[in-house]
Amino acid sequence: MEIIGFFLAILIGFSIGFFGGGGSILAVPVLAYLFLFDEQSATAYSLFIVGITAAFASVKYNSKDLINWKIASIFGVPSLVGVWLVRSFIIPILPEIIYESPEFIFTRRMLIFGVFILLMLTASVFMIKNDKHKSKSNSEEINYFLIIFEGLLVGLLTGFVGAGGGFLIVPAIILLTNLDVKKAIGTSLVIIALKSMVGFLFGDALLMNVDWKFLMLFSTVTTFGMFLGIYSTRYVKHDQLKKAFGYFLIVISVSMFLKEFFI
User: Fold this and answer.
1) Where are the domains of the chain?
2) pTM for the structure as a whole
3) b (16+ CB within 10 A) / e for 26-35
4) How far, in Å, CA of 124 to CA of 121, rounded?
5) Who's near 104: CB < 8 A, 6+ residues apart?
6) pLDDT (tens digit, 9 = 90+) per residue, 39-63?
7) H/E/C letters for each residue in 57-99?
């Protein structure tokens, strides 16, 4: 199972390098079901793994001048605040059993993974529909308040389920700013790296025992996959692979739903 897990780690990194996000959607179930981490550890470790991988990817994109640092700051700062708030104050106080009756028990794990499954299904719809988002024309004024608000929402969601939210950030940046797709992906990677690392290092790392040896090994494998993803953008058709990945996410999300709520 661990061999399969490390193989999927390559796929996680590939997704981050190729799509500019989506890796954490795979990271959480891999950590939870193949490496048997509980929901809090799986979401926390996902933040670190995706954060450090996105950081390396953003360096590569920055070398090609494909990052808008102004937008990354405006979107990223409220986003990392949202992650830090959730990982530091919300997740630690959630009880193991949220609701209990003679017929049904609703646990913290079911809540976190339930929201995560909804997020995964949303990501799959984004990828399968493959909408061609158009950026604002230069004549339109950029709504910075809306960017800040969107950043905070994505940060809160990221903190709760441990997912970077790249599939939400990229279209949001394209729709709210004048950036093209490649610059939106590069800018998204910086935002993912910042908020994920801040959420983990200043939240979870202070509250739990961290298996740093495992994290560094897994992150090394995902970083290798990330470079494969960036390299593949030269040769692989983006739209077809994105749609296939979307269907793959549906299979994973349905499997998670059945396991967590029925099996």
Assistant:
1) 2-261
2) 0.84
3) bbbbbbbbbb
4) 5
5) none
6) 989 989 998 998 898 898 899 889 9
7) HHHHHHHCCCCCHHHHHHHHHHHHHHHHHHHHHHHHHCCCEEE
